[in-house]
Each structure stands twice: as structure tokens, then as C-alpha cells.
Amino acid sequence: IFSFFSSNLSGSITTPDVKLNLGGEFIKESTATTFLRQRGYGWLLEVEDDDPEDNKPLLEELDIDLKDIYYKIRCVLMPMPSLGFNRQVVRDNPDFWGPLAVVLFFSMISLYGQFKVVSWIITIWIFGSLTIFLLARVLGGEVAYGQVLGVIGYSLLPLIVIAPVLLVVGSFEVVSTLIKLFGVFWAAYSAASLLVGEEFKTKKPLLIYPIFLLYIYFLSLYTGV
């Protein structure tokens, strides 16, 4: 009798064999997953793949090339052609973050000298570069505003270099004046040699002179004279 009932009552309960292909391997879906998919809510289960573009380093994301900035700094600080630097890269491949860092650093130095002119320095950098750009285009120069902005910003580096020297020799008026003139000529020469090309021909002084005056004004914001 027991064998009769056991033979008639034997069996198994099967579950729906619903499988999901994930990455080449099949796994069984749960009842909740199947329920959602059958009613058109399968999109709730979708998982977006990681975008490799979202995993970029911060410097690359902001388009900051430290090696390029360092090379441009050396080109500005050492403007002599005999040194073999490709100085035209400062003009032909302009960037924003390098000049901005130089201008902000110059502003910090000026602020340390008890002259609260940070906003003035940034304003003069932007609008002074715009003036040089407009003058260059009027004179027939093929230059973009971004190029002028980068060159003028980077060329503040000589004034940053002479700043600690002025703190030491500030009590010697003659020496201090000579160092200031040297710094302004250094900065103006670095900028003018990059911006004033052969296309200006006999009109070079018309562009060199305002560049020179611009750096005199930058220096006056630092020294107060």
C-alpha cells in the first residue's frame, strides 16, 4: 500500500526557467525580476556601463598640462634665441590656466606688499590684453585674443622674479630703480618678441610701446609708484 501511494504521489515542482544573458553567462532571474520585465518595467533593472571618459584625472579633465606650462615659463624667463627654446609655442599654443596662475601669483605678491590690488591686476590683464589685441589687429597682425592673453600673462614672470630682490634692496633707491627698469624691459621684451612678428614691419614701435607701458603699470600696482 505504501509503495502504491509513494509511486502515485511522487513528483516535483518546477519553476519557470527564465534566464538572463549577462556577459556571456546565463543566470536565473528572480520572481521579482520576471514580474517587472513582464509588465514593462525592465528598464528599472538596467545598469549603465562605466564610461572611461568619467575616470580621467582632474588635470586632464581641466585641460591642464603641467609640462607645457613649465616649458612656456622657461621660454618667457629666458627669451634669448641662442638658448634654443621654441618660444613661438607660447603664442601659437595658448592656454588659460598657466597665465591665470602667473597673474594670481603676481597678485598675491602685491597683496603681501599691502597693496590690495588683486582685482585691479586681473582687470588690467584682461582689458590690457584686449587693448594690445585690438591694436595688433588694426596694424595688420594675425593674432587671436587668447594668444595675447596668454603671452601677456606669462610675461609677468620677470616682474615676479624681481619682486623678492626689491624687498632686499628697497632702501637703495638707485639700485631699486635699475632693477625695476630691468624687470619691465625683461617682461616687455619677452612679450613683444612673441607678439610683434614680421607682419608689422615698420609699425613695430606702435605695438612695443603700449606693451612697455602696460608692464610699467603692472609694476606700479606692485610697488605703489
UniProtKB/TrEMBL annotation:
Transmembrane helix listed as a keyword: yes
Pfam families for this protein: Yip1
Annotated ranges, domain Yip1: 85-220
Keyword terms, alphabetized: Golgi apparatus, Membrane, Transmembrane, Transmembrane helix
GO biological process terms held by the UniProt record: endoplasmic reticulum to Golgi vesicle-mediated transport; vesicle fusion with Golgi apparatus
InterPro entries per UniProt: Yip1/4-like (IPR045231), Yip1_dom (IPR006977)
Compartments reported by the entry: Golgi apparatus membrane; Golgi apparatus, cis-Golgi network membrane
Main location: Golgi
GO cellular component: a single term: endoplasmic reticulum
Transmembrane regions listed in the UniProt entry: 96-113, 119-139, 151-172, 178-197, 206-224
Signal sequence bounds: none
Membrane topology value: Multi-pass membrane protein
Stated family: Belongs to the YIP1 family.
Entries under PANTHER family matching the protein: GOLGI MEMBRANE PROTEIN YIP1, PROTEIN YIPF4
Described purpose of this protein according to its UniProt entry: Involved in the maintenance of the Golgi structure.
Name of the protein this chain belongs to: Protein YIPF
